[in-house]
Structures are given as C-alpha cells and as structure tokens.
C-alpha cells in the first residue's frame, strides 16, 4: 500500500485478515521523500497487489515502475480538481487509464472515473471508531477559542471548514 488518506490505508490494513502481509509505504511532506524517496521505496517494493491512495504522483510513479496489478484509489480532490489541472491533470488521467482497478471514495465521482477506466467501482471510506470518536469537551479551561473562517475556495482543500485556534491566557 502506497501513501494514505485520512487513515483509510491504516484502517484497511487493520481490518484485513491476518494472513495478509502488508507493506505500507508512507511519505512525509519533505521534498525528497515526496518525490525521489517515495520513488525509491516503490521501486524496491515487491508484492502481489499494489494499492495506491490518490491518483497523483505516487500512482504515476508506481505505474512507471511497472507495479501490477495496481489499484488506484481516488479520494476526491484528485478527480474533482487535479484531473482538470493544466499542470498536473495528465498525471491523473494517465493513472486513471493505466490502473488495473480504480476505486473511488465518493459515489458522485464514479462517473468521472468510469469515463477513463471502466473497472472503476465505488468503495466507501472505512470508518474506524478507535480513531474517529466524539472527544469529551473541556470544562473550566482557561483557554480562549478563536474561530478563523477562510473564504470558500474549493480549489484549495479544506477552505470550506472553520479553523479553531486555542490560545492560553
């Protein structure tokens, strides 16, 4: 498994049967790890099945390293925005067309993926209650909460959300 998205990869690995031997290639945001580092890790890795999260550079690199059978897992922004990007769109289109299987995490994007690869299927994002659960509210804290709202710009991931900053007084 290459890369991860909102712990989807870790959740999938956690709930696989115990006889599956999984190598999870993660990367950091450092320049060399994001490009050459992940390329080197993919190149050296061997497996019976390759599962890549996001149809972007990691999927492109896995295809260039001739890793097959390859499952490309689209999580949303890769098909909503990057697919139509002049700069990066060709990587996503190439990945869509060349993957042996394409999974999409959102049902609205299934038609987009099927236009490039008819093996595309909807695969809902797994939910792990040990990672995502309601956290208890703070009581009697001396921390001020400041709400920062960002403009709605859907080309930038996450701008439809509010950010909360906690400042100790």
Summarize the structure.
The protein has a domain of 115 residues. Helix content is 30%, strand content 17%. The chain contains six helices and six strands, in the order ααβαβααβαβββ.
Q: How many angstroms separate the termini?
A: 44 Å
What does the largest sheet look like? 4 strands, parallel
Give the helices and strands as they follow along the chain.
Answer: HHEHEHHEHEEE
Mean pLDDT: 84
Radius of gyration: 18 Å
Major sheet strand order: 1-2-3-4
Could you list some keywords that capture this structure?
two-stranded antiparallel ribbon, 4-stranded parallel sheet, alpha/beta, 169 residues, globular
Give a description of the structure.
The mean pLDDT is 84. The chain starts with 7 loop residues before the first helix and ends with a strand. The chain has six helices and six strands; from the N terminus they run ααβαβααβαβββ. α2 runs parallel beside α3 (57-64) and α3 packs across α5 (89-98). The protein is an alpha/beta fold. It has a four-stranded parallel sheet with strand order 1-2-3-4. It has a domain at 8-122.
């Amino acid at each position: 498994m290459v890369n991860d998205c909102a712990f989807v990869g870790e959740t999938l690995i956690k709930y696989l049967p115990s006889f599956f031997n999984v190598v999870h290639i993660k990367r950091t945001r450092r320049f060399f790890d994001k490009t050459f580092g992940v390329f080197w890790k993919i190149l050296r890795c061997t497996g019976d099945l390759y599962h890549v999260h996001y149809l972007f550079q990691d999927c492109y690199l896995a295809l260039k390293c001739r890793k097959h059978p390859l499952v490309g897992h689209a999580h949303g922004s890769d098909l909503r925005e990057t697919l139509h990007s002049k700069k990066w769109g060709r990587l996503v289109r190439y990945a869509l067309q060349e993957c042996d299987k394409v999974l999409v995490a959102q049902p609205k994007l299934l038609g987009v993926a099927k236009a490039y690869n008819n093996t595309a299927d909807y695969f809902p994002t797994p939910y792990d209650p040990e990672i995502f659960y309601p956290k208890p509210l703070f009581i009697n804290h001396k921390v001020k909460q400041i709400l920062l709202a960002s403009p709605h710009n859907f080309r930038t991931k996450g701008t439809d959300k509010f950010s909360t900053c906690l400042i100790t007084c």
